Amino acid sequence: MALHRSFAAAALLLSTVANAIDPPRNPWQPVGGGERLLQFNQTIPSRAISAKSTSVSWSAAGSDGQFISSNSNGDLVLEDIVSGNTETFVTADKLPSDTYETWISDDTTRVLVSSNYTKQYRYSYFADYFILDVKSGELTALVDDQVGDIQYAVIAPSGDKIAFVRGNNLFLRDHGTGEIKQITTDGGPDQFHAIPDWVYEEEIFGTTNTLWFSPDAKFIAFLSFNETGVETYTIPYYMDNQKIAPVYPKELDLRYPKVGTKNPTVELNILDVESGEYKNVPITAFEAENLVVGEVAWVTDSHTALIYRAFNRVQDQDKHILVDPTTLVSQDIRKRDGSDGWLENTLSISYVGAIQTNSSSNASYYVDVSDQSGWNHIYLYPVRGGDAIQLTDGEWEVASILKVDTTRGLVYYTATTHHPTERHVYKVSLKDGTITPLVDDKVSAYWSASFSTGGGYYILSYQGPDVPYQELYATNSTSKPLRTIEDNAALYKTISEYNLPNITYFDLEHPDGYKFSVKQQLPPSFDPSKKYPVLFTPYGGPNSQQVAKSFQAYNWNQYISSDPELQYVTFTVDNRGTGYRGRAYRSLVTGQLGKLEPVDQIWAAEHLAERLSWINVDKIGIWGWSYGGYLAAKTLEINTGIFSTSLITAPVSDWRFYDSLYTERYMKTLGDNEAGYLETRVHNTTNFKTVAGGFSVLHGTGDDNVHYQHAAALIDLLVGEGVTPDKMKMFAFTDSTHGITYNGASLYIYRFLTARLFDEVNRKVDATALVHQWSKRQLAAE
């Protein structure tokens, strides 16, 4: 699409925020000033030393600037910024004792409450829901016969309806009468309405629902998913939360589309709330078996226009389709070819309305984020189609849109203007493209913000690298905060008692011109005349980021630097393919996951070992989880000898085993890239047999994301190829999912990892290992 108008060249107005917080923050993480060292039990399983933050729900009722938060007693507190008045909105005793989440209606007369929570997948859960009348204090069950089986509920913008999902069917509840109307009736194990199935939840929407009320609450757009024909993966649960194991394990038959297999089919529906009737929107952008719907958004103040974003199966082509909800007439308004890599599903569409820009007619627009310039930036797109207006530009990326203020004609956003590891907050004018920072963007930092419903106020959150804090501002006066929300003074005091690891950030520049962001962590009381063991801790997945200048929690990573018997230096390196360095950088891994990333980790390790005399070159390890576990395995596979041990946790081992929507986005289809799939699986065992300090493989048997199949196949390969027991340790965590937490596993796994690092620190280099006699006889016989 031609871009013949741009605001990106508009003047950048410098307006910095006065640093009113005491003590002033520094552009580095604190190292303390005391003598205490972090202990294991302070970091695992929970983090005893951590920053506090306040999360608020901005009220749409009354004057702008009212927000609701929860206090230490569990009460919901309503605060008015302008008047300074604070009142207890709902006392904790009015809510169920096991309250999980609360949502307040726009008019603040009702609170929707979930309780009796049962986790399902990463985001979804089952619960009971209740409606609290704020004035009377009466608590009413959403459904009289609910038994912890409601999958999702939401209050309509008008406040008079609640939409909810039960048994994979959509329902509407009328607030005035309490009447419940069932909208769909065919929901079941293979048919989902208004909620995603497993793969769409995990890889596309990252949320519990696929339901969107129109701004005037007269219509609901919702997606339906049909899993008929999707292959089933069976997960056994050996304990199933019981103290005594059942004789036969419980089994979960999960519809899980793997590479090259059938995906769920998706349909878009539009419901007329008053009549309770819905219609299916014909989707012709791609054939059903080649279709992924990535985003649905209303682009109207009422209910007159809806956009959905359709991808092809491998998500390198997309089309934005405009739909008239009353006639169902559809129109292609945007399309893009991204076959040089993939197209990210940014979920950033936000309606702006009619604006008079310097270079356009009085047309209606919406805001979206696109990397069509090679970098993620904000664009204005005409609702009815036409040329876009680029609002931001440069070799840096917009990380998130925080708020679209249509009244003032502003978009607030965070961006990596000065470095990929940083975030600063800006606003850009929809009318003339003028960009203004809301913080001092010349100071290295990581910021975010939460804006009031009317856009007049915001809570500015400093998130690092020093101790986080939050302040309240008016958008028309950003030079001085109205007050401090959270200063984390207690944390500052606690930190002063400790001698903490020293965390710094820098870039490594590869001879071929690529830059890698690096986080270095040195032990307390570091002495450059000594030799230190090293642990690399990558994730490394496509468009991900591990190295960011946010405040680093005092977790296990910092413990292993602090323990006098370990004193590990850690490095985290963001390799090629990771995010916030532009489209060309992240697209390098297209079709070849696991090929460049380990090469980069090895080069970084060799380069640092050569440059830094205090690195013990015989004790350099690598540890990763999930994609990081895959990277730890692939790095060992092509190891040049620089890495002496590898800790491989919940890894992918073969991309054919992973879900289609994620894998084919980056690897394309198995039919088009069979050689790529065979090459990028973990398959060469030579270095596993010879790695000096051995390696470990850890996985949860109940992992619904990266199935235990990955570890099982990897272990079978290694055993079959003759890897010896002195080199390999393996641990399977019964019934644990991807996070490995079931029945104390979160504590055990970090004890296990710590023990392996301790073994490595104490391993004698060039010493002849003790070999059991049967092993000697076996070797002699061979």
UniProtKB/TrEMBL annotation:
A GO biological-process term: proteolysis
GO CC terms, sorted: extracellular region; plasma membrane; vacuolar membrane
Source organism (scientific name): Clonostachys solani
Compartment list: Secreted; Vacuole membrane
Superkingdom of the organism of origin: Eukaryota
Role noted for this protein: Type IV dipeptidyl-peptidase which removes N-terminal dipeptides sequentially from polypeptides having unsubstituted N-termini provided that the penultimate residue is proline.
One Pfam family it belongs to: Peptidase_S9
Keywords: Aminopeptidase, Glycoprotein, Hydrolase, Protease, Secreted, Serine protease, Signal, Vacuole
MF terms (GO), sorted A to Z: aminopeptidase activity; dipeptidyl-peptidase activity; serine-type peptidase activity
Family named by the database record: Belongs to the peptidase S9B family.
Signal peptide feature range: 1-20
Domain Dipeptidylpeptidase IV N-terminal positions: 105-469
The EC number(s) this enzyme carries: 3.4.14.5
Coiled-coil stretches: none
Membrane-topology annotation of the record: Single-pass type II membrane protein
Reaction(s) catalysed (UniProt annotation): Release of an N-terminal dipeptide, Xaa-Yaa-|-Zaa-, from a polypeptide, preferentially when Yaa is Pro, provided Zaa is neither Pro nor hydroxyproline
Record carries keyword DNA-binding: no
Primary localization class, coarse: secreted
Name of the protein this chain belongs to: Probable dipeptidyl-aminopeptidase B
The Peptidase S9 prolyl oligopeptidase catalytic domain, residue ranges: 555-755
